[in-house]
Write a structure and sequence with these properties.
Layout (H helix, E strand, L loop, with lengths): L4 H11 L3 H21 L3 H10 L16 H9 L4 H9 L2 H4 L6 H21 L11 H8 L10 H4 L9 H13 L8
Length: 186
């Protein structure tokens, strides 16, 4: 079954109350849409995966052993495309005990993870506006282990498993987030 963006946002807001988690979801949606466009994939399907990937994070208190699994239950009940559910389940390998092995899975994991690095890099700029952010700043910050220390650089580097070199990946993702800067508080 196809679900409209409006219905997906309504579903997301039923489970996510934290404004910053909503911003992260919208950023992930924009990034996934841009990646799908670049890779000639279904933009709406990939965007939906980005939008809904953390739908269970508040319910499971961000427990890495459960995160993604509860999302599967919620999304199956909402008749979301099984391929989207699979990518969402696999964006957190710790809960599944399995390794990501599809382009969609790698794209979602890398794409949603880089949003944290991009947001952190934006917030150290004097104006705290993404429109001022240069992609090379994000690349530079990725090399600083203490900067945004919770952001998994290895997951971001999975972009190479989908055929997009890191520098290009950062540019695509920064540009995607710039398009919705106001909507995500940046």
């Amino acid at each position: 079954m196809d679900i409209s963006r409006e219905e997906a946002v309504e579903l997301l807001k039923k489970y996510i109350k934290n404004e910053h988690l909503l911003y992260h979801s919208y950023a992930s949606e924009a990034v996934m849409r841009a990646l799908a466009k670049k890779l000639n994939k279904n933009e709406n399907k990939w965007a939906l995966a980005g939008l809904l990937h953390d739908i269970d994070v508040e319910i499971v208190n961000a427990d890495p052993k459960k995160h993604g699994l509860k999302a599967c239950e919620i999304l199956k009940e909402a008749n979301i495309d099984p391929e989207i559910i699979d990518a969402i389940k696999m964006h957190n390998e710790e809960a599944t005990g399995e390794k990501r092995n599809t382009v969609f899975q790698h794209a979602l994991a890398a794409g949603e993870t880089i949003t944290g690095m991009i947001t952190a890099a934006t917030l150290v700029y004097p104006d705290k506006k993404i429109k001022s952010l240069k992609p090379k700043s994000v690349i530079k910050r990725m090399k600083e282990k203490k900067f945004a220390a919770s952001v998994n650089r290895e997951t971001i580097k999975e972009c190479e498993k989908i055929g997009i070199p890191l520098n290009d990946f950062v540019i695509i993702c920064v540009d995607a987030m710039k398009e919705i800067g106001e909507e995500i508080g940046l």
